Amino acid sequence: MKSNPSLLSATNAKLSEGPSIGQAGIGGPPPTDKLIGVDWQDHREPSSIVECQDFECLCNELQGIYRGANDCMLSNGQFLRKAIRKEYRTLTDDERTRFHNAINRLKMSKVYDHFHALHYHYSYNSGIHMGPVFAPWHREFIKRYEIALREIDPTIALPYWDTTMDQILPDPKDSIMWTADFMGSVDNNGYLNSGPFASWITLEVANKFVHTDSEIEEKKVPIKKLGNNRIRRNLGVPDGNRLIADLNITRILTNNNIYLIFGDEQFKILNGSCSSLNWLEGYDDTFWLDMTLESIHALVHQYVGGMDDNHELGDMAEFQTAVGDPVFFLLHGFIDFIFEMWRQTHQYTDQLYEYEPRPRCDVKNCGSKYLFCDNSKNQKHCGVKIKIVMTAEMNALNGLAKEVV
Q1: What Pfam families has UniProt attached to this entry (predicted)?
Q2: What is the pTM (predicted TM-score) of this model?
Q3: How many angstroms from the chain centroid is the CA of residue 77?
């Protein structure tokens, strides 16, 4: 059995990363993971710029001059612009080259491997997969990755991979996506042998997953090293074309089923087995798999990573190794785009409800007989009136008073 790969955040502000990788409190793997040595490997955290949550912060971190709105002049005289995320194949040759160069520089600096390790650790207890946190967590994750790239080259943005354009081909493996000018081609064993990332050696990780821990502890499943090799892809093996189609997107954008929105049905399906790709190993009902954002994304992970005749998985097919392949971020750019389309078409707050302002002292009694304006401090602030506690003595006196009356 293999671990489950189903891969199936302040103002002017920075969103801090919280505890360090592997530190208690973030669902990191136990100390036994050091048998593989993910934490011992040479990877470097990105600078604090990735924590930025607005354009002004980004401008200041890049030592630019912020002049309001999205107006920022960098020290070299160029203007910093809002990132425009284009479809990967629509980039000009120069834009694509600059994008590839920035990724390679991020890899050489070891910051890319930090993103890999971060996803590996946060994935360990399935906290960022198989449920409603999937979309927002990965939104912040790829935002940080994009900013790390823009720190290298402020002119670029993270493109997305619209898989529907490959899905309509008789055989998506024939797409220019898998050529030396784009994401590269592979040899007969599935290892990348051309393209901008052909020389990469991926981060070494373990096959550990929360559902395999007991089996590993009982030595039913050995701890296995993954990664530490060239990027590997088994495109479309063995399940063929499972790329996202227009129908999948339409279903998601029009979906109002609460179980599917929150990924509950998908969790029931995928979490019921310790098998890594249970539908590749005999799960036939793909109805639910085509209905949730996370599940259609997982099918693309399967397509790119795949499984060879020896049941060896490509990098994209397991959450532990997926980030080692830069295709990961192109796919998640598209998933985030679909998520944003869903969010924009479900703005029910405009019609169903709105919030009144918080109680304030410029309104008499803060707007309620149960509130008061506290003037005792430097800054006025509305407070709630206290309850009257009747002690036994007070009750007795109250009773006596009634008798006297």
Answers
A1: Tyrosinase (PF00264)
A2: 0.80
A3: 34
